[in-house]
């Protein structure tokens, strides 16, 4: 294979990795939107808090003398999920539930306020500097021609793919098979009707925030380990990207969020391959504007019927 | 070319798998009161929403004064002279009565930005004209004393009348009323009856009416179209409709 | 009360989870590796305080609510002079305030005047964003982008073409408006939430572009040596540049750098007064009415022939142009600009000003802008917690007083019955 094609293959691998984490975060946006029709602006911060919690747990466990890597990682993942979910729940209780049914502008502003608040809350508690952790999982498979270009697929990337796939499958099963999942779907169809039929909609709405937060936490742990550095501001861009992914796939649609995440990740990686890497954010955002312009319902979204 | 003001032919509206309107035809002639009746869920409001541009029909054509409007956006249709009210009153509740009428005259006003900043004579003149027209219509619907009240504080019957006045200040050619008598007491309904007839006779407009109040419909309509489950059932003058067995079975027979 | 105990316990538990790990334990970088440090006793004290506080508030929610209902609510409308009197006094009050604004800088220190100038920039930004958020009900999270466009317009025009401040001012406003129009047009047709996120992204994009287009904008190093405004060609420098004259030479007085500061302040006052006048007029114009109507019921507006996109776009563009003016002035005042002045935080501050003052209320926005710029200067420690508080303020205001501290309605036209 030629150098270019190997290079492109490498970028494809990188893009799939980032894209799958975008997809995980995007599900949080899309689920909340699907049910209450609101964008949870503070979702990116939940992801950021997930990475912090994971780092704290990992370092804490090492300090306590737990040395088995799988045990440490599993515990970190679980802690991150629990803490982030609590944040998701709290955001819903504080910034969304009291305002439900009011003018749309109001919860948008509270959510923005919430996002700024959480970002600075972590900044004050943990400092604003970058925190770097040595790679815990290193190595991988290398292939291609050592003389031309060597493509590497790290274990970490494989783990990210695996975990993403597992989480998505679990979510799909939960939504399609379980009682609560069915209630979720009912709420997404018609919240008022679901309420009349005896579904505790408050609980379901809270649940979507919690599930979204848990998935964001999983993404946070993965990306935290993958990049190795975190700071309180990472939630902002990640949130924006994941939102783009959600819109790209069609907001409100869970398979759409998955697809959108992957497409966005690959697009970004390809941009970064041929242009200065700062411009990948520009490209991602331009993509968002283009979709809104030409296909506001996204790739898999359903058109909204206005209620007159 | 027909002399119809509004010509709806073979209108079809589909929401996903639901066929809400299936092949409805309407011909509204100038200076006529034309009613659309049918049981609940027959698709009357959907027809309205298609005509007024809130929905784009799946199939069929809608022509107003010979001009195809079924692909136009709602505000452009309204600028052509097709103005509607809503089943649930949609006033600007926290604005005053007079301002509700001024908003409706947006296109008659001099909206030039600099003219407004400098209060040019033309701006002032337009503003005054709009005020006069608003006052005239408040008089017509008997709301002049309430001009500076918040619209949301009016009684239900007054809100209904204000909504009609708000349509009239735009100087429409066809007024579309969606269940204007819903929630009114008999006296208010009788007044509304008078008002609608007066509009037709004095203002040279046609009225397209959706209504459940049979007394009102039969009393004032020049022409009636009956639809049932989205499909046309009957069409004709009130006497003919009253005698139509299919209509009696589907609609009148129930009540 | 015993029925409230489980929800209260639950809330306390949630609070504990929210705080224990991220506040209770701190990550520290030590060379290449990280360590964890437990927080000191004081921090844990705060955590305990928060947990117990939430528990008690939840537990005593009902009694507290009953207590609050029994408390007399303060009615400040009674304290204000009646409307007729206020109306008659209005021209005098305005004259008093304006003359106060003009005389005041000659009596205080340079630093105070400088701070006042900065405050006036925020007043202008707040008023501009208020058009978009308060009047038209559109959430613009990238307002700072238009501010940046204005600032860079002047900086670049002055650097490459030697255009003066007064020449550039209208151009800066115009260009910002064009950007607003181009961005708003595709997005304003969609739902409000999309606008929020697209503007947020747009703000970031503008910053990234300014940072990376080094050949034009100087990248992170910014642009320096931007000319100050002149008074009908009179410069406020010690020595005149070629072909022009300085202020102190013309009036034959000693050079003082204070002149420049006061002049800048006066220019800012002029711009703010102009802004207030224009916005006041627009509120009474059909456009202002259409904004309010659109906020109330978009469907009704469409049925009456109002084009929602155009009306929203007008608010969005107008708001952007005021940010452009403010940006142009900002560049002139600083003499140096870099992308660092145009981060999302800046947008958030302006939004917080609008939210705190009351969406749609000019008076409120002005007061909030003054408070938000002067408070951080008074207390340095406040700086550290500033953004945390802004975020908190936005949430709390929306929950308790969404109309803002000084709510005010648009003046309605009245029908005078003869």
TrEMBL record, chain A:
Pfam families: BPD_transp_2
Any one Gene Ontology BP term: D-alanine transmembrane transport
Keywords: Amino-acid transport, Cell inner membrane, Cell membrane, Membrane, Transmembrane, Transmembrane helix, Transport
InterPro entries referenced in this protein's UniProt entry, alphabetically: ABC_transp_permease, BCAA_transport_permease
Gene: livH
Membrane spanning residue stretches: 12-34, 46-65, 71-90, 102-122, 155-175, 204-227
GO molecular function list: L-isoleucine transmembrane transporter activity; L-leucine transmembrane transporter activity; L-phenylalanine transmembrane transporter activity; L-valine transmembrane transporter activity
Main localization category: membrane
NCBIfam families in alphabetical order: PRK10740.1
PANTHER family xrefs: BRANCHED-CHAIN AMINO ACID TRANSPORT SYSTEM PERMEASE PROTEIN LIVH, HIGH-AFFINITY BRANCHED-CHAIN AMINO ACID TRANSPORT SYSTEM PERMEASE PROTEIN LIVH
Taxonomic classification: Bacteria, Pseudomonadati, Pseudomonadota, Gammaproteobacteria, Oceanospirillales
Protein name: High-affinity branched-chain amino acid ABC transporter permease LivH
Automatic annotation (TrEMBL), chain B:
Domain of life: Bacteria
This protein's name: High-affinity branched-chain amino acid ABC transporter ATP-binding protein LivG
Presence of the UniProt keyword ATP-binding in the record: yes
Keyword terms of this UniProt record: Amino-acid transport, ATP-binding, Nucleotide-binding, Transport
Family matches, as Gene3D superfamilies: P-loop containing nucleotide triphosphate hydrolases
Record-annotated ABC transporter domain positions: 6-254
InterPro entries linked: AAA+_ATPase (IPR003593), ABC_AA/LPS_Transport (IPR051120), ABC_transporter-like_ATP-bd (IPR003439), ABC_transporter-like_CS (IPR017871), BCA_ABC_TP_C (IPR032823), P-loop_NTPase (IPR027417)
SMART domains assigned to the protein according to its UniProt record, in alphabetical order: AAA (SM00382)
An example Gene Ontology biological process: D-alanine transmembrane transport
Annotated NCBIfam families: PRK11300.1
Family: Belongs to the ABC transporter superfamily.
GO molecular function: ATP binding; ATP hydrolysis activity; L-isoleucine transmembrane transporter activity; L-phenylalanine transmembrane transporter activity; L-valine transmembrane transporter activity
Annotated organism of origin: Marinobacterium marinum
Cellular component annotations (GO), alphabetically ordered: plasma membrane
From TrEMBL, chain C:
Chief place where the protein resides: membrane
Residues forming coiled coils: none
UniProt domain High-affinity branched-chain amino acid transport system permease LivHM N-terminal: residue ranges: 7-104
Domain of life according to the entry: Bacteria
UniProt-annotated location(s): Cell inner membrane
InterPro entries according to UniProt: ABC_transp_permease, LivHM_N, LivM-like
Pfam families: BPD_transp_2, DUF3382
Membrane topology term: Multi-pass membrane protein
PANTHER family the record matches: HIGH-AFFINITY BRANCHED-CHAIN AMINO ACID TRANSPORT SYSTEM PERMEASE, HIGH-AFFINITY BRANCHED-CHAIN AMINO ACID TRANSPORT SYSTEM PERMEASE PROTEIN LIVM
Record protein name field: High-affinity branched-chain amino acid ABC transporter permease LivM
Species this protein is from: Marinobacterium marinum
